[in-house]
Specification:
single chain; alpha+beta; 3 helices; 5 strands; globular; disordered N terminus
């Protein structure tokens, strides 16, 4: 008796990277839209939205977009890029202020001003690139392991 053998490959291939970008031209962008963009991109990659790393990425994007809205007039651009391996998410926010972000010293009694400290804790650090009409702030959030405590 012959037993049929399947020769169809079952390996899953993924694109080199998944990307998303969004520009807000006038007015304040909705921070919730930025968090939703992270969730949508990672869902397209079949990463479970309830994972701690996804929540960390949403918090980082919220903080970076909030800083752009608070400290820079004009357009704000969000860029998200998932690595080909799916193990890290690069978040970039471009705004019109030439001033680099500055983390404030930790002060548990202070309300607000903790955002950049959180970004540094949850990501592999902050990179700031000066541009002719502003700056680009980038952070890479690991999506695997127990990063960020």
């Amino acid at each position: 008796m012959d037993i049929p053998v399947s020769t169809r490959a079952t390996t899953r291939t993924r694109p080199e990277s998944l990307r998303h970008s969004r520009t807000w031209v006038a007015g304040a962008p909705c921070i919730a839209e930025a968090r939703d963009a992270v969730d949508a991109l990672l869902s397209r990659a079949h990463l479970a939205p309830e994972r701690r790393a996804v929540q960390d990425a949403q918090l980082v994007v919220s903080e970076l977009v909030t800083n752009a809205v608070k400290h820079a007039p004009g357009p704000c651009e969000l860029g998200l890029e998932l690595s080909a391996e799916g193990d890290e998410l690069r978040i970039t926010v471009t705004d019109t202020s030439a001033e680099p972000p500055r983390a404030r010293p930790a002060d548990p009694g202070r309300v607000g001003g903790h955002g950049l400290n959180l970004v540094n804790l949850l990501s592999d650090g902050l990179q700031v690139t000066p541009l002719p009409h502003g700056k680009r702030v980038a952070a890479t959030v690991p999506l695997t392991g127990d990063h960020g405590g």
